[in-house]
Amino acid sequence: MSKTVAEAAIKGAxxxxxxxxxxxxxxxxxxxxxxxxxxxxxxxxxxxxxGILGIQVEKLSDMGMVFDKCFKMLPPPEVNAEDVxxxxxxxxxxxxxxxxEEMLEALRYLSQPEYYTNTxxxxxxxxxxxxxxxxxxxxxxxxxxxxxxPGFAAIIGAAPDNAxxxxxxxxxxxxxxxxxxxxxxxxxxxxxxxxxxxxxxGWTPRLVSFGDEATAAIFAFGFAVRVALxxxxxxxxxxxxxxxxxQERIKAFIMPxxxxxDEWYANAAGALNFGxxxxxxxxxxxxxxGVESVDSVLAGIPYSRIVxxxxxxxxxxxxxxxxxxxxxxxxxxxxxxxxxxxxxxxCGGGRTQMVELVTTxxxxxxxxxxxxxxxxxxxxxxxxxxxxxxxxxxxxGHKMNEDYEPILERQIHHLLNYAQGxxxxxxxxxxxxxxxxxxxAKGFSLKHIGSILHAKLHQDFGGIVDKIxxxxxxIPEKVAEISRQSKKIYTKRDERIEGMxxxxxxxxxxxxxxxxxxxxxxxxxxxERTGLCGAYNWMDCRASNEINxxxxxxxxxxxxxxxxxxxxxSGINQFVEKTSGGVVSHYNLYSIIYDPMTTCGCCECxxxxxxxxxxxxxVNREHTGMTPCGMKFTTLAGTIGGGITTPGFLGxxxxxxxxxxxxxxxxxxxxxxxxxxxxxxxxxERFNARAAELGVPDLLERIADESVGxxxxxxxxxxxxxxxxxxxxxxxx
Length: 733
Description:
By secondary structure, the chain is α/β, with parallel strands linked by helices. Helix content is about 35%, strand content about 15%. It is built from 21 helices and 23 strands. The strands form seven sheets. Strands 3-2-1-4 form a four-stranded parallel sheet, sandwiched between helices. It has a four-stranded mixed sheet with strand order 10-7-13-12. Helix 1 crosses helix 10 and helix 12 crosses helix 14 (about 445-460). The termini are far apart.
């Protein structure tokens, strides 16, 4: 190893560890040792320290032992840094750097609680987001699982000017990568350069402005560690497995821009433990000629090639289909907001009528690529206008049939949202579209909706679709007519799945999308048990398999019944054992107590038993408060995620709550005694219909929520007063 690089890395590590320790000592002067420290709303303590060392830093005094380890990991002060050339010593110094930075940022949260926004997107007064909480982790983690986010770039420093920064960010977005930003170079900061160029920042557009100082880089490392702990079931403290998982499954790279300081050499040494390569714009000496990664450090890369070089170094392959629209296009723009003052044209959302429909047509009736607009277009309307809109997609193909219609129709939401300056919400006849002034200024029209759908549906569903034509209507009477016709079709579709039962279905389907992060997790989807992420029901999986028969949704023959009440079959067990690599030999689809199904980090809800109340609670991912089982959603997910079976706990979808087989082995819905108010309202209509079937039509009103209490002792009197049926059932335990 280069003596110059070793000297810089060791010197930088010493600087950071010493600086962090000084802040720690000053903090102890004004705070007692038992003062709580940590990052907001996370179950992983200080995640890098927890993941690598297994130490739970919960209060100031806990930091003392970590600082002791940091100093021991550094070469002794009497040893000259330039004399330390062994790779292992430099990598250890890199880890001490990360530990010290994490503690320094935790101390910042303690002394300056308003320093970061603690939100998903910047506020008008502050662009620095700070550490991602566990809700963001799990929400965004799904994108890393399903491939819409192939990895992330951690940018440190700044580009030479705003134009270069905007170009790099746009290329990363178009390649679907997340960009994590922190630090400065010669007084300039990459995130600030983007903000000055009016580029939207935040988790939504995948441009995450962590912090203005270099130490905020730890939030990127913390995100990677929490992915491993949450989705990969890595045991805290098992650094070898953690680094192996990061190398194999977390596609990340570090991109320092501008002048390289000693402190950044120290951070680079920390990054290389994870297998994250370093790609820099300035020339630096190679930091590790012996690491098992080709091109672990690349330097002096031109800005025009730096993104592609970084992706090659990390082995990230992204196929980007060119869509013929005048705006940037890609998943990074999904969820981009078009706010009131930015709107050029608005359709649906209760302001006007909007409906979307995909239908199957005969081959001779479809002209591939034909896009027709009946009525006014964007250019015909003044700024701030509203129009009704109907989008009708006619698909033809030798394998196309009615079962695939809702699958293609559901894609409209994602595909339109991928266009920069376009916002889409909802589906069916409750859709809502906004076209921003920036998109309109570039020439985006309603007909471009057809261009997007034609190109992307062909790309994604070419195995079943041969021809696609699109008709768009903005004539009010015609939109109303199509809406009436569509409602009948929607009802017919819903009745197909609602009429199915597990007993009368011999083939279930697997979903192994999440195995990219949780290798032992195998989701089994049946007609009466949707996938726990909420994205797939039985019919979706069947259609997915027919479209791609070697994909994540495989048919699984149930085999012989082992226990009908618990929901266990021989064929399911054989498939689960094989597909989990022998980690899981069996589980039950209908039970929360006896060998429940495995859970990954993507579940919409988690249920847990409440023995005192003789019932079960459930909490959705969006709820951030405490629950009667003594854990928040984040802690629950960290406890049962990663593809393990945890008796007494169950991950599931929101829709599954109102399906007939929801924990039916334990009396199903009648056991539900607590859930957040927001979840109650979200599923109220379906819940009441299911409760009426069970003979307790007012069951929802008998279920406690956070306004009643967040402990079993607090909610039990309410349940007794309301005569909740769970109190009269057989004991759960």
